[in-house]
Design goal:
It holds the Pfam family DUF218. The protein is α/β, with parallel strands linked by helices. The chain has 2 domains: 188 residues, no CATH class; 101 residues, Rossmann fold, CATH 3.40.50.620. The protein is built from 11 helices and 4 strands. A 4-stranded parallel beta sheet has the order 2-1-3-4. The protein is globular. It starts with a helix and ends with a helix.
Length: 337
């Protein structure tokens, strides 16, 4: 019952965090942890009341897990090949392919470590399982947090709409960036229909080394071509990454009259990380995402996940150790007590 009680406590904490309506990784972590502890609590009750049913449940999970991993690996490899064919060769575009191959190689690595023999091989194999398990749990928590943040309502009458840049192709707006701009235009038109002052649009993006002009300039041109009045477009053309997008856009936003909220538009896979960065740079802003081509989503989410891990790497080292200690404790509570 202790595991079920802990799951209930996690759900209460999740509800409190959810009520704040902001970008938070903790929401997904709390919800996933609550579901896992609830499942483990049910398993514990089965072990105590019906050992045969518990053994059957464990066998089903043991058989289903490699099948699920195999299907996921094939999907990721296929997606990775599609990414290389449609988007070109780069590390970011290789992520889903690398992840798929890694899922296939992982069991072979474990078998090799166990065949190495001795206590040392077992310890290394256990460490590999711990790291892989934590990485998988953290990725699921990241996905759930992203979905929860995407489900929050967006302001209908913002005073400003900031559009984050994503790179030009031969100086022109490519489909990915066009999707962000179209989402911003739809929000702008909805705000105009709602009445009051029309929002100011802030297309944000500087000039990369392979770009003939700043992204903000090309984005502003696209907005004007779509019928947005030029006096309501204030491009930001110095930023080179998301953090700078937000910091430099805030200077423009702070100069806009009115007390309404700020809406930030990016791609759906980028929403959570943009929201986390915006919390300190444009407080109380809400980030919304434009839809991305389906084939692009797996690699894009993996890239965002890796970026978040790198940004908080030492925190994740501590969490991985806590994760391992928790697994050992739960195993002991279910099967050894």
């Amino acid at each position: 019952m202790l595991l079920l009680a802990f799951a209930a406590l996690l759900l209460v904490v999740f509800a409190v965090a959810r009520a704040r309506q902001r970008a938070q990784l903790r929401e997904g972590t709390l919800l996933v942890a609550a579901v896992v502890f609830a499942a483990l609590g049910v398993l514990q009750l089965l072990v105590q009341s019906d050992p045969d049913a518990a053994a059957t449940t464990v066998r089903v999970v043991a058989v289903a897990t490699p099948v699920i991993v195999l299907v996921l690996a094939v999907f990721l490899i296929t997606n990775g090949i599609t990414m290389l064919r449609l988007e070109g060769r780069s590390l970011a575009n290789l992520l889903s392919l690398i992840a798929g191959v890694g899922l296939l190689v992982f069991p072979l690595l474990l078998l090799a470590l166990l065949a190495w023999g001795g206590f040392g091989g077992f310890v290394v194999a256990a460490g590999v399982v711990l790291v892989a398990g934590y990485a998988a749990a953290a990725f699921v928590a990241f996905l759930v947090s992203s979905l929860l943040y995407a489900a929050l309502p967006a302001p209908r009458r913002p005073r400003a709409i900031v559009v984050l840049g994503s790179g030009l192709i031969r100086g022109e707006v490519p489909p990915l960036l066009r999707g962000r701009l179209d989402r911003a235009i739809a929000a702008w038109r909805r705000a105009v229909r709602a009445g009051g002052a029309a929002p100011v649009l802030v297309p944000s993006g500087g000039q990369g080394p392979d770009e003939p002009r700043p992204e903000g300039e090309a984005m502003a041109e696209y907005l004007r071509d779509q019928g947005i009045p030029g006096d309501l477009i204030r491009p930001e053309t110095r930023s080179l990454n998301t953090r700078e997008n937000l910091e430099f856009s805030r200077v423009i936003v702070d100069g806009i009259d009115g007390g309404g909220p700020v809406l930030i538009v990016t791609s759906d896979y980028h929403m959570l990380r943009a929201g986390l960065l915006a919390r300190r740079r444009i407080p109380r802003a809400r980030v919304v995402g434009a839809r991305t081509a389906a084939y692009f989503v797996p690699s894009a989410f993996l890239r965002e996940y890796v970026a978040l891990l790198a940004r908080q790497r030492w925190m994740h080292v501590v969490f991985a150790l806590v994760f391992g200690a928790t697994l050992v404790s739960v195993y002991a509570a279910i099967f050894l007590v």
